Amino acid sequence: MEMGYVWMRRVGVAGANSTLLSKPSMAALFSPAYQKPFSFSYVKTSLYLVSLVPLRRRWLSATASCSPVPPINLDENCSDFDSDCTTFSRKGSKVVLKGMTYSELEKWVQSHGYRPGQAMMLWKRLYGNNIWAHHSDELEGLNKDFKKMLSENADFKALSLKETRTASDGTRKILFTLDDGLVIETVVIPCDRGRTTVCVSSQVGCAMNCQFCYTGRMGLMRHLTAAEIVEQAAFARRLLTSEVGPITNVVFMGMGEPLHNIDNVIKAADIMVHDRGLHFSPRKVTVSTSGLVPQLRRFLHESNCALAVSLNATTDEVRNWIMPINRKYKLDLLLQTLREELRFKHNYKVLFEYVMLEGVNDSDDDSKRLVDLVRGIPCKINLISFNPHSGSLFRPTKKERIIEFRNTLAEAGCTVFLRLSRGDDQMAACGQLGKPGTIRAPLLRVPEQFQMAVASSS
Ligand code: SF4
User: Fold this and answer.
1) Where are the domains of the chain?
2) Ligand 1: distance of its center to the CA of 253 in Å?
3) CA-206 nearest atom, ligand 1
4) pLDDT of residue 34
5) Could you tell me if 173 and 227 are in contact, meaning their C-beta atoms sit under 8 angstroms apart?
6) In 262-358, where does DSSP find H-type helix?
């Protein structure tokens, strides 16, 4: 696996034990084509998530024929703490504090002979009181022996700061180095109305291979741990609160499909909303998905944080192309699941995201179909201007067309917003994060009727 420089970006989930797509047959595995490292020839025969053991990079690919081969299990989650409370995520001999929920921290502190009250004092210094401690020296007011025990047994930081960049509109991109040398990206987006949002990543790269997304070209390198996710928000507060004011919102829209890493994402979101810690309102923590249906259902049952669904098309034909996960979980199934699940959530609206791609998903028919598709689902719709990146096939829809599209939705009674592009001069905008290497996820065959739209954009 390349261990080089990797950036990240956001958007889209499968339960821990779920399966996504089918893998190559045994015969195919032993064929010369399969054994050739990173030849793309093997992706031509079936619909599957690539599993290259030595290279560890995965993505969703698709072609016309789907051979009946066994499913691949994506259960690779590495939770920071096991359920019987005996093992914690470790860095060398030290335990990683940011990977623990409050009750886990309390048990760990007690297991070292200290009182639960000291766990709360530590928790507040990790996440609250404008401290966001990175070292035992920053634990003012804590008992000396307790601090000594922490310095010997605990690690306070899950990420190392690599660099920050500021875009002309004030958006900050923060690059963090992980322990294994990979680099991830977090974006902080200040807004005039007293709201500042931190956009966190959940994976290094992404397996979903959405055709309009730069991160998708990287393939999946690995999941982030809960500690690495929580630390992005805590670190952003520590670094930027004095400059940009309080960070009030979190969106899981950085690199990766959050629900593909659902265990760690749900845990990280729980830590973020704890009322004596980072204390984000659950309604202001939004987890986005490309549409992994079983995981989406689980998320709605287990978390009270907000959900965004990246929709981006009104027909299976277009969605199969631009979001290959749709070949597994079709539009009908996705929307019907939301319709059913949201009946049991009080005062809860899902946010649909719709990236506008000229000539692909922005027609009058699309706007009318979209109204029909979301009927009966408590929702808001965000229309997002496409942010081009190197090698992208698509062009952004013109502003006037976006407004017409918005008007059709609004006139039909939908709650609809336009999301402006932020940070694009630093490649910090939606869909622009990451840095694909020389080996990239494959671009899929363009359906015939869209070949003109795509050709005119290149
Ligand atoms: S490939 Fe799709 S799911 Fe993955 S980060 Fe990009 S838009 Fe999100």
Assistant:
1) 20-73, 90-155, 160-455
2) 9
3) 4
4) 32
5) no
6) 262-273, 293-302, 316-322, 331-342
List the CATH code of the domain at 90-155: 1.10.150.530
User: Rounded to an integer, what distance in angstroms lies between the CA atom of residue 458 and that of residue 446?
Assistant: 13
60 lines ligand 1 (CB under 6 A): no
Block residue for tokens 């080089």: 4
CA of 211 to the centre of ligand 1 (A): 9
312 lines ligand 1 (CB under 6 A): no
| CB distance 216 to ligand 1 below 6 Å | yes
Structure tokens, 272: 């973020």
Amino acid at 238: R
Q: Write the residue with the smallest CA distance to atom 8 of ligand 1.
A: 11
The Cα–Cα gap between 400 and 428 comes to: 24
- pTM (global) more than 0.70: yes
If you ran DSSP here, which 8-state letter would residue 363 be given? Answer: S
Please give the share of the chain, as a percent, with pLDDT higher than 70: 76
Select the CATH number that applies to the domain covering 160-455 from these four: 3.60.15.10, 3.40.50.150, 3.20.20.70, 3.30.750.24.
3.20.20.70
Helix (H) or strand (E) holding 223: strand 220-223
How would you label 216-250 residue by residue, b for 16+ Cβ within 10 Å and e otherwise?
bbbbbbbbbbbbbbbbbbbbbbbbbeeebeebebb
Token code pair at residue 175? 């690059």
Rounded distance between C-alpha atoms, residue 85 and residue 442, angstroms: 42
Tens digit of each residue's pLDDT (9 = 90 or more) over 165-207 = 999 889 999 999 999 999 999 999 998 778 999 999 999 999 9
Which residues are part of the catalytic machinery? 185, 430
Distance 49 CA to ligand 1 centre (A): 14
Question: Above 70 in pLDDT, residue 12?
Answer: no
215 lines ligand 1 (CB under 6 A): yes
Tokens describing residue 398: 């013109």
Residue (of 192, 215, 208) closest to 430 by Cα position: 215
Check pocket membership of 213 for ligand 1, CB cut-off 6 A: yes
Residue with the nearest Cα to atom 7 of ligand 1? 11
